[in-house]
Structure formats: structure tokens, C-alpha cells
Amino acid sequence: MTSPYQHKAHDGINQDVVWHTGSITHQERAALKRQVPVVLWFTGLSGSGKSTIANAVEQKLLALGKHSYLLDGDNIRHGLNKDLGFTQADRIENIRRIGEVASLFVDAGSIVLTAFISPFISDREQVRQRLEPHQFIEVFVDTPLAVCESRDPKGLYKKARAGEIKHFTGIDSDYESPTQPEIHLKTDIDSIEACAEKVVNYLAARGYLGL
Amino acid sequence: MTSPYQHKAHDGINQDVVWHTGSITHQERAALKRQVPVVLWFTGLSGSGKSTIANAVEQKLLALGKHSYLLDGDNIRHGLNKDLGFTQADRIENIRRIGEVASLFVDAGSIVLTAFISPFISDREQVRQRLEPHQFIEVFVDTPLAVCESRDPKGLYKKARAGEIKHFTGIDSDYESPTQPEIHLKTDIDSIEACAEKVVNYLAARGYLGL
Q1: 3-state secondary structure string, chain B?
Q2: Is A1 inside any structural domain?
């Protein structure tokens, strides 16, 4: 058994970096959970329905006895990434860290869902490249800006239009739509329930949900 | 149901931060895994046996059908924390992020083991404070410096003594021993097997391993 990592003990802080025989493998963790670990990466405008659909997917997975975890603003922005601000560099670092944590959860055997606007193709591609091809499923929550703005559950679009919030995605900052998302959801046509079912059916049809 | 977090949408980047009803609870995730989630925080000198014992504990937990995950240099230093260097500030940030990721795994229902020297009491205490009292178990791998140095599996002590590595814990940087660790292991007296068994017995006796 070899490590997937290079081990260069070039400094004291890397003194722990060595491969230990007898480690539990990724396959053993996944087998215990009877599923194929994967990242469901939800992307879309604010108010598009990412978190709502992701929560509905998780409910369905739990009912099937599957092990999932949702990373979103609630548990990331106030914890791991609370040191990050709003510069371009910090936005990139925000997505990079989320991708790394998602990768750890995949290694642990989980089906991990992420619900962040993640407006830039390059950032999403970087996460995709970090994983095996079958471990990254891009879920485009494709809700028209006008619909998101009419929902405006937090009044953020109103503030953005008034100039009180700068660099708001869809208003004065770009959203780059996925060109070939694995799953394409349209919440202005389908219900939350139907969207969530589409995601779970995608997983089931491709063997992610195991036995 | 209320969120444990404050939600202040004070800027565009926080536009996703809102509570969604219908989220799966921490309790539901733990129930699916039939265990009580917890962090086993291994601390000790380089070569003390942290990772080796943690791996042995994981093997035992897997045999019991329990869901665990090990955070160590292998999967953290080359991924999430690869942007961090060796300054005092970066060392603190290193441990902070590991604590935050461990907290996410606990929220997901896992028994998470961490194997880092983590030499400073203040850093370890910060992680402890981040969690509920019963969710943090400090495991002191108390191996005398002379024993660690005689093992020196990676030749790092030799390099540190030669001055080739600076700020090496135990040589020219302090290791602050835990004053009241929940579990105290002495690898110069007990075998790896005995140490691992002590940890698992601790968990079992306190109900962490559930049904």
C-alpha cells in the first residue's frame, strides 16, 4: 500500500507527515456506509434554491439510510472560513477550502452536498480536478435572476439594487453558468420535491447508493 | 428548531447564510451511525506514536462497525492547510482549521481522531472550547523525549540536533504537556495494542459506541 501523497520532511512542521501501514482505506470506509462517496456541488444565484433542495435531498438520503453531510454558509462561514473577507483572493480561498473539506468527507465515505453560489467556473473546476471524475457532480440550480429577485427572502437583492451591498452576484458581479453540469435543475418549472427526486434518482441510477 | 448561529447578512458574500427549516439534525446523523460523535485529540512529541495508535484505534472501531475518520499530516498538510507555513501565526491557524474540520465531522456524526503534535495548551484549549464538553477527549501520548529520539523513524531528531531543522518540538521548541488529559497513554510501558484498547475501552465505558 502506498500513500497518494509525497512525503517531504523538509521542515519541523512536517515531522508528522509519513505514511502509516495499517490505515483504514477509503474503500473500507465507503463499504461500511454501503454507498459510493461523492460531492454534490450545488451552484446557482442567491435565492435560486440551492440549500432548500440540498436539504430535501439529504432528507431523502437519510430515509434510505445513506450517510450525507451538507456544507453551507451556516457551518462554514462562521467557522472554518470566518477569517476570510470579501476580496477576490478570499472568495477563491473560500471555495478552495470548501473543496478540500468536501474531499476529506469523500475520503471518509460520505455523500457530501455543498450549497454555495460559487459563481466562477474556474473555482468549480479546481474542485472538480481535486477529485476523481466520478466523485464530483455539478448540480446547476438554474433559476432566472428575475425569479430569484422576486423571491428575495432576505431582502438582499433590494439592498444590492440600492447599492447597499456591492459585488452582489447577478447584480454587479458575474455568475458564470455551468456549461455541462451533470444535473440541471429548473426551480421555476419543477417543484423542490421534484428537483430533489431528480438528484436522488441520478445517484441511484449510477450506483452511488449501493446496496 | 433554531440555528446555533447568528445570521447577519451584512454583505454579499453572506447572502447564503440563512436557516433552512427541514435540515437534518446532528442527532439524526448520529442516530444513523449508532454512536455518539466525538473528537479524540491525540497530542504528543514527534515519534511518540500518535498516528500509529490512532490507526490502531480506527481498526478496532471499524471492526465494531463504528464510523471514524483520522485527520493527520497526510490528509491535512498537503490539502486544506497547504497554504500555511511555519510561522507562529501559521501554526496557530493550522490547529484552528483542524479543530474546525473536526467540529464539522462531529456535526456529521463521526468519531474523529486527530494526530498532530499540537504542542501548545492554548491551541488545544481553543479547540476544546469550540465543542461541547463531552465532544472533546484529549489523548496524551506521553512518550519520553529520549524514547522518541531513539526511535527517530524519519531522522528528524538527528537533523534537529544538527541544526538543520529549526523550531523542532522537544529540541528547540516547547511541548506543553496536557495537565488533565482524559486519556493518558505511555508507549514506553504499554504496547500499541494495549494503548489502542485503552482508548476504545474509554469510549465504550462512557456510551460513545452506542448500541
Answers
A1: CCCCCCCCCCCHHHCCCCCCCCCCCHHHHHHHHCCCCEEEEEECCCCCCHHHHHHHHHHHHHHCCCCEEEEEHHHHHHHHCCCCCCCHHHHHHHHHHHHHHHHHHHHCCCEEEEECCCCCHHHHHHHHHHCCHHHEEEEEECCCHHHHHHHCCCCHHHHHHCCCCCCCECCCECCCCCCCCCEEECCCCCCHHHHHHHHHHHHHHCCCCCC
A2: no
Kindly tell me if the per-residue pLDDT of B4 is higher than 50. Answer: no
In A14-73, the residues whose Cβ lies within 8 Å of chain B are: 14-20, 22-24, 28-29, 32-33, 46, 50-52, 55-56, 58-59, 62, 65, 67-73
pLDDT, residue B18, reads 41
Q: What is the percentage of chain B residues whose pLDDT exceeds 90? A: 78
Q: What is the DSSP letter of A79?
A: I
Catalytic residues of A: 118
- Closest CA of chain B from A127, distance in Å: 12
Is pLDDT of B74 > 80?
Answer: yes
Does the beta-carbon distance from A116 to B20 stay under 8 Å?
A: no
Q: Does residue B210 sit within a domain? A: no
SS3 A97: helix
Q: Share the mean pLDDT of chain B.
A: 89
Assess whether pLDDT exceeds 60 at residue A184: yes
| B16 assigned to some structural domain | no
Is A99 assigned to a binding site? no
Total domains present in chain A:
1
**Where in the sequence is the domain holding B60, given as residue range(s)?**
37-205
> Residue B87: pLDDT band by 50, 70, 90 thresholds?
confident
User: Residue A158's domain is classified under what CATH number?
Assistant: 3.40.50.300
Q: How far apart are CA A195 and CA A50, in angstroms?
A: 10
Whether residue A67 contacts residue B32, with contact meaning beta carbons closer than 8 Å, is answered with yes
Residue A2 lies in a domain: no
Residue B201: band (very low, low, confident or very high) from pLDDT cuts 50, 70, 90: very high
Q: What is the pLDDT of residues A122-154, one digit of tens each?
A: 999 999 999 999 999 999 999 999 999 999 988
Hey, what's the cell of B170?
522537544
* Active-site residue list of B: 118
Q: Is A15 helix (H, G, I), strand (E, B) or coil?
A: coil
